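1st attempt posting a full record on here, be nice pls
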Amino acid sequence: MNVPAPTDAVRLRGSGPAAPAAAPSGPSPAPADEPDLRHHGDAEVRGDGGGLTDLAVNVRAGTPPAWLKAHLAASLDSLAAYPDGRAARRAVAVRHGLPVERVLLTSGAAEAFVLLARTVRARRPVVVHPQFTEPEAALRDAGHDVERVVLSERDGFRLDPDAVPEDADLVVVGNPTNPTSVLHPAAALARLARPGRTLVVDEAFMDAVPGERESLAGRTDLPGLVVLRSLTKTWGLAGLRIGYVLAGPGTVADLERAQPLWPVSSPALAAAEACSAPAALAEAAAAAEEIARDRAHLLVRLGEFGEIRVAGPAAGPFVLLRLPGAAGVREGLRARGFAVRRGDTFPGLGPDWLRLAVRDRATTDRFVTALAGVLR
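the predicted structure (as tokens):
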């Protein structure tokens, strides 16, 4: 499938069989010439990429902090017992001002996408792109025929709620969106909620936004709202796998029934409880402010290159940029010790896009020197 020209938001149908109202069966094949929906940034730093400076993965550098490592180590004494998630679930509920029956702990946010794909009975599921590709991959694997709403570079990849089909009964959107780093207004997202529709908002990076502005995590007034959160990014817990779902009690109960027994390990539960405590929230808030300052520095330095265009305004711990010959630039950066994320695996983008994680100013300055060497 050809990538649409970067004009207005467009709608694209997948080529798989339509999903029935009941639980779908059999994977829905992606259209021919599709981006690799299963490619993720960690592929850039595996194997011979392990020694590179990592700008491809959006996990905050220098994490997990020492206090969290100590807390996780202490939790190992409980490994003989089966995991008990009640305390962690209460902590997450308190953190968002919600009753516990609106919280479900998951083995990373990625598990939540699979659970939703298997349990939500959608006739017309829509994924807003460019965004994290796992939601669409999970829906296709569960047999759904996925329709795309592709946002426009010309509009700064901003969401127009009117671009989403009125009869879409499952809508998935990221906020702030990976890879564009665009933060959609909460009011625009709220316009997508309605009876008979499941609205999934992926807020995996929201705790990296100062004040978590535009979050819907505490809302209980929007019908069908499902908010996904991850502790991976801010706390450096990609290898531990811990995230959670915030949704109506009925949706939470449905998802929980689809989970295997004891889906979240005891150390991961310990992390969820600890990272929901007031001191941890204060630390995360300070980290978000620091990320904003470091991102501003990165944007200034990228502005030195006339051939580079940055999507935005960026609000996440990463930026998306467009430059000619990005694939060759990426390889040149690898030769100079830096791993960056290719953009052509995201629907709606193409070979001229790269995503960069925000790092400290010294790392950014080293990166800019390497980039200048590649470009000039």
